[in-house]
Amino acid sequence: MSETTREPAALAALGDSVREIEHHVAESGWDGPVRVFALVRTQEMLRTEPGLAAQLEESVLAAARSQPWHLTSVEQEELPAAPDLETLLAGLSWPSTVDGMAVTVERVVLPPAAEEAMPQDTEAALEYLLNHPERQDVRLVVAALRDGPSWCAVRSRANDTADQVGQGPDLVPGLVAAVRSTLE
Asked: Which of 59, 74, 142, 173 is deepest in the core (most CB within 10 A)?
């Protein structure tokens, strides 16, 4: 497959995978931990581990047969201890058999004007953030493929329905860059 035909297929597969991960994580409700997923091409995974086919639904197997870029997400359990998300991601690396990765994290966001008024002191800033009347709790799913596209999904607690999930290739640029760095 040429580079020009690979990109749309890879982006479509990545978008499907992010939506699937977002839906899966949403089923667990809010106030969850950071979660990390390896993304592997389903055809290649089944070629190297044929026994996994018994664990997949027939619709997934059919999609994998017809779509070379169909992705399977594999949640990583027992993540290494880290004081923050940046440190966790900086400590991750993936073997070449992993085509991409995704991370889910919940954050509190404020409108830009409210952020400008946030105190500099860490404890005061946290108090300000948690008690601000315009705060929004959001769940982010950010994914990228090795040397390929990225895709993001954002769900707010205030609009907690699947049809209210914002999506796009670079909605959280800093986190996209951190995800990409794990694939280098």
From this structure: 142
